[in-house]
Amino acid sequence: MKKLLVFISILIVAISLKSCSSSDSDEIQYEGDIIGKWRLSQLFINNEDLQISECEKKMTIEVFEDGTYTENDYLYNDTDTECLLYDVVNGTWESLGNSNYKMSGLNTVSVKVSFQDNKMIAEYSEINDGVTFSIKTIFISDKAFVPDKILGKWEQDQAFIGSIEIEVSACEKMGSVEFFEDGFFEEIAFMDNSEQTECIELPLKTGMWKNIGDSLYKIYGIGADGEIKITFENNKMSVEFSEEIEGIPITAKIIFIKVTS
């Protein structure tokens, strides 16, 4: 597993370099498009979306008009407790014409780069241990980047089982969950004591989150590690998920109110 993660991280670096390489297109139009700062959004290998982590999405590439670039790469540490800047790459790029680019230090002959709206798409093939991999990375212009709506601190407001609203106690409403840009979250929860005369604070709960697109998220560390649908409206966040209780499928929805950004 560790070898696979290392390999994937290397691919991410290579792709990012290649996208930089695209910065030197054969036409002024392409050079103008590629110049600037880009943030990693998606990584595909053999047409499979690897659903990279929020930490890896912090990777940026800044392409300069003088034919140089700077790349900052991020990865979680070995215990998945911290998102670290693990490498800074400085290099050069060269246009090969027809939207193809070459990047210093890469084994790949060229990278095909295209642009769509505020996105830059870099595609190339690489051979590793005799196996050919088709790789595609999608970057978002830093100027067009919008932070995930999930970021910030939220407090529970309502809860539903199916269509039936479940009462949320004053103690439960004291709890909060805070999501951070690097893919971590912290949850503080309270419960009533047996006499319902005071609120008892439960141990701090931490975990990781990942946006996988189409309003779907993966929230790790809450007992429901599958895909969860999360939507946003004004200052409210609606979290919907399903689970089985004694073999019976149950659909639940929790509505949170945003406290801080």
Sheet with the most strands: spatial strand order: 1-3-4-5-6-7-8-9
The domain count comes to 2
Low-confidence stretches: 1-30
User: Topology as H/E string?
Assistant: HHEEEEEEEEEEEHEEEEEEEEE
Oligomer: single chain
The name CATH uses for the topology of the largest domain is Lipocalin
Report the radius of gyration as a whole number of Å. Answer: 22 Å
Structure description:
With 261 residues, the chain is mainly beta. It has two domains: 2-141, Lipocalin (Beta Barrel); 152-260, Beta Barrel (Lipocalin). Helices cover 12% and strands 55% of the residues. It contains three helices and 20 strands. Residues 1-30 have low confidence and may be disordered.
List key phrases describing it.
Lipocalin, 55% strand, 261 residues, 2 domains, eight-stranded antiparallel barrel, mainly beta
Draw up the topology in text.
Layout: H1 2-21, H2 28-34, E1 36-45, E2 48-49, E3 60-63, E4 68-76, E5 83-97, E6 100-103, E7 111-116, E8 119-128, E9 131-141, E10 152-161, E11 164-166, H3 170-173, E12 176-179, E13 184-188, E14 190-192, E15 199-201, E16 205-213, E17 216-220, E18 227-233, E19 236-245, E20 248-260
